[in-house]
Amino acid sequence: MTHPAHLRTALHLAADGVPVLPLRAGKVPFGNCPQCAANACGGRPHMKSAGPCQCPAPCHGWAAATTDPHVLTSRSWAPAWRHAAAVAYHPGGAGLTVVDLDNPAAIQWAHQNLPPTRTVTTTRGEHWIYQGTMPSSNAVRPGVDLKSLMQYARWLGAGVGATAPLPDAVRALAVKHPSPARRAPQTLSVPLRGHGSECPHRTPTFLERGITMGVQRITEARSAIHATVYRTFLAVLSTHGRCGCLTDAHVSRLFTAAQAKGESPRHCTAAWTNALTALGL
Fold first, then answer.
1. Alpha carbon of residue 78 to chain centroid
2. Which of 184, 59, 169 shows the shortest CA–CA distance to 109?
3. Which of 54, 78, 84, 189 has the fewest CB neighbours in a 10 Å radius?
4. 195 burial via Cβ count (<10 Å: 0-12, 13-18, 19+)
Protein backbone atom coordinates (compact mmCIF):
# COMPACT_ATOMS: atom_id res chain seq x y z
CA MET A 1 0.00 0.00 0.00
CA THR A 2 1.27 3.48 -0.86
CA HIS A 3 2.57 5.42 2.15
CA PRO A 4 -0.29 7.94 2.49
CA ALA A 5 1.45 10.48 4.74
CA HIS A 6 4.52 10.93 2.54
CA LEU A 7 2.47 11.11 -0.63
CA ARG A 8 0.09 13.65 0.91
CA THR A 9 3.06 15.77 1.93
CA ALA A 10 4.52 15.52 -1.56
CA LEU A 11 1.26 16.51 -3.24
CA HIS A 12 0.84 19.46 -0.88
CA LEU A 13 4.34 20.72 -1.65
CA ALA A 14 3.89 20.15 -5.39
CA ALA A 15 0.69 22.23 -5.32
CA ASP A 16 2.79 25.06 -3.88
CA GLY A 17 5.28 24.79 -6.73
CA VAL A 18 7.96 22.80 -4.87
CA PRO A 19 9.39 19.89 -6.94
CA VAL A 20 9.43 16.74 -4.80
CA LEU A 21 10.52 13.10 -4.84
CA PRO A 22 10.45 10.11 -2.45
CA LEU A 23 13.50 9.00 -0.45
CA ARG A 24 14.22 5.50 0.75
CA ALA A 25 15.95 4.62 4.01
CA GLY A 26 19.28 6.34 4.42
CA LYS A 27 18.07 9.54 2.71
CA VAL A 28 18.81 8.01 -0.71
CA PRO A 29 16.56 8.47 -3.78
CA PHE A 30 14.90 5.60 -5.56
CA GLY A 31 15.74 4.52 -9.08
CA ASN A 32 12.31 5.18 -10.55
CA CYS A 33 12.49 2.71 -13.42
CA PRO A 34 13.15 -1.04 -13.78
CA GLN A 35 16.58 -0.45 -15.34
CA CYS A 36 17.75 1.46 -12.27
CA ALA A 37 15.93 -0.40 -9.52
CA ALA A 38 18.11 -1.42 -6.57
CA ASN A 39 20.75 1.02 -7.77
CA ALA A 40 21.57 -1.18 -10.78
CA CYS A 41 22.83 1.84 -12.72
CA GLY A 42 25.73 2.27 -10.33
CA GLY A 43 24.51 5.19 -8.27
CA ARG A 44 25.89 8.20 -10.14
CA PRO A 45 22.41 9.60 -10.80
CA HIS A 46 21.91 9.85 -7.03
CA MET A 47 24.56 12.55 -6.94
CA LYS A 48 24.43 16.06 -8.38
CA SER A 49 24.47 15.15 -12.05
CA ALA A 50 21.82 13.22 -13.91
CA GLY A 51 24.30 10.45 -14.59
CA PRO A 52 24.20 7.84 -17.36
CA CYS A 53 20.55 6.87 -17.07
CA GLN A 54 18.63 7.48 -20.30
CA CYS A 55 15.25 6.42 -18.94
CA PRO A 56 12.17 8.05 -20.47
CA ALA A 57 10.51 8.20 -17.04
CA PRO A 58 11.50 10.72 -14.34
CA CYS A 59 14.46 9.09 -12.70
CA HIS A 60 17.03 9.71 -10.01
CA GLY A 61 17.57 12.33 -7.38
CA TRP A 62 17.04 16.00 -8.06
CA ALA A 63 16.32 15.23 -11.73
CA ALA A 64 13.25 13.21 -10.71
CA ALA A 65 11.73 15.98 -8.60
CA THR A 66 8.43 17.13 -10.06
CA THR A 67 5.36 19.21 -9.29
CA ASP A 68 3.15 17.12 -11.58
CA PRO A 69 0.53 15.29 -9.46
CA HIS A 70 -0.08 12.82 -12.29
CA VAL A 71 3.58 11.75 -12.13
CA LEU A 72 3.60 11.60 -8.34
CA THR A 73 0.52 9.38 -8.26
CA SER A 74 1.41 7.31 -11.33
CA ARG A 75 1.71 3.55 -11.26
CA SER A 76 5.47 3.73 -11.96
CA TRP A 77 6.03 5.77 -8.79
CA ALA A 78 3.73 3.69 -6.58
CA PRO A 79 6.45 1.21 -5.47
CA ALA A 80 8.67 4.09 -4.36
CA TRP A 81 5.91 5.62 -2.25
CA ARG A 82 5.13 2.22 -0.71
CA HIS A 83 8.67 2.04 0.65
CA ALA A 84 9.38 5.75 1.11
CA ALA A 85 11.08 6.77 4.35
CA ALA A 86 10.90 10.52 3.69
CA VAL A 87 10.12 13.23 1.15
CA ALA A 88 12.80 15.32 -0.52
CA TYR A 89 12.60 18.44 -2.67
CA HIS A 90 14.73 20.22 -5.24
CA PRO A 91 15.56 23.63 -3.71
CA GLY A 92 16.78 25.12 -6.99
CA GLY A 93 13.57 24.09 -8.72
CA ALA A 94 11.63 26.01 -6.07
CA GLY A 95 13.88 29.06 -6.40
CA LEU A 96 15.62 28.38 -3.07
CA THR A 97 19.06 27.75 -1.62
CA VAL A 98 19.54 25.64 1.52
CA VAL A 99 22.57 26.28 3.71
CA ASP A 100 22.95 22.91 5.42
CA LEU A 101 24.58 23.42 8.83
CA ASP A 102 25.65 20.03 10.14
CA ASN A 103 26.82 20.75 13.68
CA PRO A 104 26.67 23.35 16.49
CA ALA A 105 29.91 25.01 15.38
CA ALA A 106 28.52 25.56 11.89
CA ILE A 107 25.29 27.00 13.33
CA GLN A 108 27.30 29.39 15.48
CA TRP A 109 29.27 30.48 12.42
CA ALA A 110 26.03 31.14 10.52
CA HIS A 111 24.64 33.30 13.31
CA GLN A 112 27.82 35.36 13.22
CA ASN A 113 28.16 35.68 9.45
CA LEU A 114 24.80 35.25 7.68
CA PRO A 115 21.58 37.27 7.78
CA PRO A 116 18.63 35.68 9.61
CA THR A 117 16.24 33.70 7.44
CA ARG A 118 13.79 30.79 7.59
CA THR A 119 15.30 28.00 9.69
CA VAL A 120 14.46 24.30 9.78
CA THR A 121 15.77 21.98 12.50
CA THR A 122 17.52 18.85 11.19
CA THR A 123 18.77 15.67 12.88
CA ARG A 124 22.21 17.13 13.57
CA GLY A 125 21.87 20.85 12.90
CA GLU A 126 19.79 23.31 10.87
CA HIS A 127 18.80 24.25 7.34
CA TRP A 128 18.91 28.00 6.65
CA ILE A 129 16.73 28.66 3.61
CA TYR A 130 17.15 31.69 1.35
CA GLN A 131 15.19 32.95 -1.65
CA GLY A 132 17.35 32.61 -4.76
CA THR A 133 19.36 29.93 -6.54
CA MET A 134 23.02 29.16 -7.06
CA PRO A 135 25.25 26.18 -7.90
CA SER A 136 25.27 23.54 -5.17
CA SER A 137 28.52 22.76 -3.41
CA ASN A 138 29.52 20.44 -0.57
CA ALA A 139 31.95 21.20 2.25
CA VAL A 140 32.33 24.89 1.45
CA ARG A 141 33.56 25.19 5.03
CA PRO A 142 33.55 22.77 8.00
CA GLY A 143 30.04 21.42 8.50
CA VAL A 144 28.47 23.58 5.75
CA ASP A 145 26.96 22.38 2.45
CA LEU A 146 25.01 24.40 -0.11
CA LYS A 147 21.99 22.76 -1.73
CA SER A 148 20.25 24.56 -4.57
CA LEU A 149 20.57 23.76 -8.29
CA MET A 150 21.06 20.10 -9.26
CA GLN A 151 20.72 18.89 -5.67
CA TYR A 152 17.97 17.66 -3.33
CA ALA A 153 17.26 18.26 0.34
CA ARG A 154 15.11 16.31 2.78
CA TRP A 155 11.78 17.96 3.64
CA LEU A 156 11.68 18.46 7.41
CA GLY A 157 8.86 20.94 7.69
CA ALA A 158 8.21 24.57 6.84
CA GLY A 159 10.52 25.91 9.54
CA VAL A 160 10.29 29.24 11.33
CA GLY A 161 11.05 32.80 10.33
CA ALA A 162 10.76 34.78 7.10
CA THR A 163 12.72 33.71 4.03
CA ALA A 164 15.43 36.29 3.29
CA PRO A 165 16.98 36.99 -0.14
CA LEU A 166 20.07 34.95 -0.93
CA PRO A 167 22.98 37.06 0.38
CA ASP A 168 26.35 37.60 -1.29
CA ALA A 169 27.96 35.99 1.76
CA VAL A 170 26.40 32.65 0.79
CA ARG A 171 27.18 33.01 -2.92
CA ALA A 172 30.80 33.76 -2.03
CA LEU A 173 31.13 30.41 -0.27
CA ALA A 174 30.90 28.56 -3.59
CA VAL A 175 33.12 30.87 -5.62
CA LYS A 176 36.02 29.07 -7.23
CA HIS A 177 38.71 30.46 -9.48
CA PRO A 178 37.62 29.66 -13.04
CA SER A 179 39.87 27.51 -15.17
CA PRO A 180 41.39 29.51 -18.05
CA ALA A 181 40.59 26.55 -20.29
CA ARG A 182 36.83 26.84 -19.69
CA ARG A 183 34.41 29.71 -20.07
CA ALA A 184 30.73 30.08 -19.34
CA PRO A 185 28.56 29.90 -22.47
CA GLN A 186 27.28 33.47 -22.05
CA THR A 187 30.83 34.80 -22.45
CA LEU A 188 31.84 32.79 -25.50
CA SER A 189 33.09 35.14 -28.19
CA VAL A 190 34.43 32.48 -30.58
CA PRO A 191 33.32 28.91 -31.38
CA LEU A 192 34.34 26.21 -28.94
CA ARG A 193 37.63 24.73 -30.00
CA GLY A 194 38.83 21.19 -29.58
CA HIS A 195 42.37 19.96 -29.88
CA GLY A 196 43.18 21.44 -33.27
CA SER A 197 41.27 18.75 -35.14
CA GLU A 198 39.50 19.48 -38.39
CA CYS A 199 35.73 19.60 -38.38
CA PRO A 200 34.42 16.13 -39.34
CA HIS A 201 31.08 17.48 -40.56
CA ARG A 202 30.73 17.85 -44.29
CA THR A 203 27.85 20.31 -44.15
CA PRO A 204 26.45 22.85 -41.66
CA THR A 205 23.10 21.11 -42.07
CA PHE A 206 24.27 18.40 -39.66
CA LEU A 207 24.95 20.94 -36.93
CA GLU A 208 21.70 22.82 -37.60
CA ARG A 209 19.73 19.59 -37.33
CA GLY A 210 21.46 18.76 -34.04
CA ILE A 211 20.69 22.15 -32.51
CA THR A 212 17.10 22.01 -33.73
CA MET A 213 16.62 18.55 -32.24
CA GLY A 214 18.16 19.72 -28.96
CA VAL A 215 15.83 22.70 -28.74
CA GLN A 216 12.86 20.47 -29.57
CA ARG A 217 13.85 17.92 -26.91
CA ILE A 218 13.99 20.62 -24.22
CA THR A 219 10.80 22.33 -25.39
CA GLU A 220 8.77 19.12 -25.40
CA ALA A 221 9.92 17.94 -21.96
CA ARG A 222 6.98 17.59 -19.55
CA SER A 223 8.95 16.58 -16.46
CA ALA A 224 12.54 16.12 -15.29
CA ILE A 225 13.38 19.41 -16.99
CA HIS A 226 16.76 19.73 -15.30
CA ALA A 227 17.84 16.27 -16.42
CA THR A 228 16.61 16.89 -19.96
CA VAL A 229 18.57 20.13 -20.22
CA TYR A 230 21.76 18.51 -18.95
CA ARG A 231 21.44 15.49 -21.23
CA THR A 232 20.72 17.70 -24.24
CA PHE A 233 23.78 19.86 -23.53
CA LEU A 234 25.83 16.68 -23.11
CA ALA A 235 24.61 15.26 -26.41
CA VAL A 236 25.31 18.48 -28.34
CA LEU A 237 28.77 18.90 -26.85
CA SER A 238 29.71 15.26 -27.36
CA THR A 239 29.05 15.69 -31.09
CA HIS A 240 30.07 19.30 -31.75
CA GLY A 241 32.15 20.43 -28.76
CA ARG A 242 35.56 19.35 -30.01
CA CYS A 243 35.65 20.59 -33.59
CA GLY A 244 34.85 24.28 -33.24
CA CYS A 245 31.39 24.19 -34.83
CA LEU A 246 29.47 25.73 -31.94
CA THR A 247 29.05 29.50 -31.86
CA ASP A 248 27.41 31.90 -29.42
CA ALA A 249 24.26 31.80 -31.54
CA HIS A 250 23.94 28.02 -31.19
CA VAL A 251 24.51 28.09 -27.44
CA SER A 252 22.04 30.96 -27.07
CA ARG A 253 19.31 28.93 -28.79
CA LEU A 254 19.78 26.06 -26.34
CA PHE A 255 19.84 28.41 -23.34
CA THR A 256 16.74 30.24 -24.56
CA ALA A 257 14.83 26.96 -24.87
CA ALA A 258 15.89 25.90 -21.38
CA GLN A 259 14.96 29.23 -19.81
CA ALA A 260 11.56 29.10 -21.53
CA LYS A 261 10.95 25.89 -19.54
CA GLY A 262 11.76 27.68 -16.29
CA GLU A 263 15.51 27.14 -15.98
CA SER A 264 17.53 30.05 -14.65
CA PRO A 265 20.62 31.40 -16.46
CA ARG A 266 22.71 30.15 -13.53
CA HIS A 267 21.35 26.64 -13.89
CA CYS A 268 21.97 26.69 -17.64
CA THR A 269 25.56 27.70 -17.02
CA ALA A 270 25.98 25.00 -14.37
CA ALA A 271 24.51 22.32 -16.64
CA TRP A 272 26.72 23.41 -19.54
CA THR A 273 29.82 23.44 -17.33
CA ASN A 274 28.98 19.99 -15.93
CA ALA A 275 28.61 18.65 -19.48
CA LEU A 276 31.96 20.15 -20.47
CA THR A 277 33.57 18.57 -17.42
CA ALA A 278 31.99 15.17 -18.06
CA LEU A 279 33.39 15.18 -21.60
CA GLY A 280 36.80 16.51 -20.60
CA LEU A 281 36.42 19.69 -22.66
1. 23
2. 169
3. 189
4. exposed
